[in-house]
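Slide 14.
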Amino acid sequence: MRKLLVLLSILMIFISCEKNKTENFTNFGSTINETKFITPQELIAQKDNLEWREVAVKGKIISVCEHSISLIDLKVNDSTEVNVFNIDNDRPFVFPKEKCIGKQAEIVGIFQIKDGFPKHSENEKADKDNKGKVKTEEYEHNDKNGKVYIIKATGVNIYGI
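Slide 15: predicted structure.
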């Protein structure tokens, strides 16, 4: 009986240690406290109620912007994504491009909806019309309605990098 009690005690200690074991993640910005996260799909489904509010979103990173390694994208569906970058322009997050894609991320920040971003170009002159104004016919990161969904993050955790 005593051996059984000792064995059960060791087993309980082992199980409790496994529950406290945390997965490795890299934090960018402010520390994220335990909170209830929503998916990017839930965020877009509730977009009108959440605009200009702090949100906590957890999803898979589908890309890191080629032109700015301080911007990551979370997939909502085949035609919509959520762009994530930090709120402090003086000290931008620098995401390791090769390591982030396909990883899970937790983001806390302010959610915004914008009308569109102009597509980046290697030749900036080609993006301007003959009066020097930037053309806005083509957009990158837009959904089918021409909207861009942005989280200006105060904190980001990326797991497995």
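Speaker note: The longest helix spans residues 2-20.
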